[in-house]
Specification:
about 20% helix, two-stranded antiparallel ribbon, 9 strands, about 120 residues, alpha+beta, single chain, seven-stranded antiparallel beta sheet
Length: about 120
């Protein structure tokens, strides 16, 4: 009986996790960007190039390459609405000779994400 209850709870938990993943995939918001210089995100260096930034979950930002492969993900804070802009804007913070991605303005989707910096 005890095993039946544990299996039922485990199956229910997995079913809820599947629903949450489906809802997240449907609610993700992405912007395409062309970064003309090397930059740092999640303590990783990335070359200049075309990328997508995907806001997934309320507090996660995922960097993807031009083929859609996930390269890095970071925690974000202060996600909120902004006045509608026509262009996507990225802000970078200079630190020790590198440029760290610090903010993403989504343009027409009207959201702003502040990248949380890790402490060294």
């Amino acid at each position: 009986m005890k095993h039946l209850i544990l299996h039922t709870i485990a199956a229910f938990t997995l079913a809820l996790a599947g629903l949450a993943t489906t809802a997240t995939a449907q609610s993700a918001q992405a912007v395409k960007v062309n970064v003309p210089f090397e930059f740092v995100l999640a303590e990783q260096n990335f070359p200049a190039g075309e990328y997508s930034l995907v806001r997934s979950e309320p507090n996660i930002l995922i960097l993807r390459d031009g083929q859609g492969h996930s390269l890095a993900q970071v925690l974000i804070d202060g996600v909120g609405s902004a006045a509608p802009e026509t262009d996507v804007k990225l802000k970078f913070y200079p630190s020790e000779g590198q440029l760290l991605l610090s903010e993403v303005w989504s343009g027409q989707d009207s959201w702003v994400a502040h990248v949380l910096r890790t402490k060294n």
